[in-house]
Structures are given as structure tokens and as C-alpha cells.
Write a structure and sequence with these properties.
alpha/beta, seven-stranded mixed β-sheet, three-stranded mixed β-sheet, 10 strands, 28% helix, 18% strand
Length: 267
């Protein structure tokens, strides 16, 4: 019972109880198939179904709000335009996590970052992940440390055993059942230190980007979406229309007064 309470509390703290004013403008980076309930604007570099392997749940990108198809390390948004930016389970997929965090802290005043923690990921990880993620608590604020992976699995012999013994899925489900223990969750304001260790082989990066769908948490994604709907039923959301020119960088402004629509804007 206590474990269930802990899971619900972690879910609420990371997904629902966000420290955002009612009229705050919120960005979700790497929104995929399950954007945050509170996000006003979405950004996803790979919204097409060809990249479903990078996502979990349904695998299909949701475009129920304005979605910018753009590089997270070179966002098309103006400085400080967002009150809050969410970046959940994205940094482990990108080739330049330092650049993405730099952009997050440029376009938003505060935000939330979540990545898989290395100790759990080294037991069973996903072929689309590029980094082992750790938190260096010796600094203030703590530094997110990203170590370049050199292969899909930390130990190929253990990985082969889990697969041939049919233990891979049961072990992954067990790890997922303690989800709040196997992630690094960071709320930042103003800045978030991050550094990388090592570099990637280009061929390895290409294989991860083109990895076939591998997440099998579709049922959990449905449950999470239903739980979110229940918990946010009476919570206020920003309803004010957003002008295109109010969020993009000055050199991208059109001057036509157009409002953002629930469609894809490609950059």
C-alpha cells in the first residue's frame, strides 16, 4: 500500500502539481504521443509515424495543440517567452543534451526535466537511448551528467540471457512498477547544470534514431492518461489565444497577427 501511495505521489508531483500560474505559458519539449495536460505549445523533432520507436504508449504523435517540428537544440522561440518548460524522457534520445538544456533555460524561466537513471537503465535499457544519466549532487544545484553509450545494452551477455530466457519483459515490468525510483527528476529555475562524458560512434547514433518501436507500456500510457484526466478535471488551464509572433524569435515574426492553431509548424 505504501508503495502505491509513493507511486501516486510521484506521479502527481511530476505530472500534475506543476508550479505554474493559471495564466502561465507552458512548453512541452519532445511531447510525442502524450503531451503534458498543461502544455500550451508543443515541440517535437520527430512527429511522423516513421519515428514511432522513439515514443511509448500509442506511438502516434498527438497534435491537439500547436506543435513545432524543430530541433530542441535550436528552438524557434524567443528568449524567456515561456513561464515553464517540460522535457520528460527526451535528453537520453538526443545527440546534444547540453544544447537542449541550454535552449530550455533560454526560452523558459523555469521547468522540469526527467531522464532514466543509469543504475536501472543498465539492467534493461532501450535501443533508442544514447546516454547513461546520473546526477552529481556535489554541485549546487546538482549537475546532470550524461555518459555516451557505446552499445544498446550495458552488458551484451546479460542482455542476451534475459531475451532467450523470456525474462526481459517481466524484469522490465518490475522495474517500471518502481518508476519513481528509476528516474532523475529535476525542477529547475533560471539554470540547470549539465555535462557530457565521452562521444558517440555515428553509426550507433543512426541505429538509435531508426530503432523500431520497442516500448511496451501502451497499457500504462492509457492508465496514465486516464488518471491525468481525472486529476486535472477541475484544474485551470490557460485559455487565452497565443499569437504566433509572440512566441517565435524576432527574425521569424510575420507581422500578420496570426494566432497559433492545433497543427504542425515545421522548421
Amino acid at each position: 500500500m505504501q508503495e502505491l501511495k509513493d507511486r501516486l505521489r510521484a506521479f502527481y508531483d511530476s505530472r500534475i502539481g506543476l508550479p505554474i500560474p493559471d495564466d502561465g505559458l507552458v512548453l512541452d519539449v519532445g511531447s510525442g504521443d502524450k503531451p503534458s495536460w498543461r502544455a500550451d505549445v508543443l515541440l517535437d523533432r520527430y512527429p511522423d509515424d516513421a519515428y514511432a520507436g522513439q515514443r511509448s504508449g500509442t506511438g502516434h504523435t498527438r497534435v491537439d495543440r500547436p506543435l513545432f517540428d524543430a530541433d530542441a537544440a535550436a528552438m524557434p522561440f524567443a528568449d524567456g517567452v515561456f513561464d515553464y518548460a517540460i522535457c520528460s524522457h527526451v535528453l537520453e534520445h538526443v545527440t546534444d543534451p547540453v544544447g537542449v538544456v541550454r535552449e530550455l533555460t533560454r526560452v523558459a524561466r523555469a521547468g522540469y526535466i526527467e531522464v532514466p537513471e543509469a543504475s536501472a537503465a543498465k539492467i534493461i535499457d532501450f535501443p533508442s537511448h544514447l546516454w547513461w544519466c546520473r546526477l552529481d549532487r556535489s554541485t549546487k544545484p546538482p549537475t546532470l551528467v550524461m555518459e555516451a553509450k557505446q552499445a544498446p545494452a550495458f552488458d551484451p551477455e546479460i542482455d542476451a540471457y534475459l531475451k532467450r530466457s523470456d525474462l526481459a519483459e517481466p524484469v522490465k515490468r518490475l522495474i517500471d512498477s518502481r518508476h519513481h525510483h528509476n528516474v532523475i527528476a529535476l525542477r529547475w529555475t533560471g539554470a540547470q547544470p549539465v555535462r557530457t562524458i565521452g562521444s558517440h560512434d555515428p553509426d550507433f547514433v543512426e541505429r538509435t534514431i531508426n530503432a523500431e518501436a520497442h516500448h511496451t507500456r501502451g497499457g500504462e500510457a492509457v492508465v496514465a492518461r486516464a488518471l491525468t484526466s481525472v486529476l486535472t478535471f477541475r484544474k485551470p488551464r490557460r485559455r487565452t489565444p497565443i499569437a504566433y509572433d509572440d512566441v517565435v524569435r524576432p527574425e521569424l515574426r510575420r507581422g500578420d497577427g496570426a494566432l497559433l492553431e492545433p497543427r504542425i509548424y515545421r522548421f
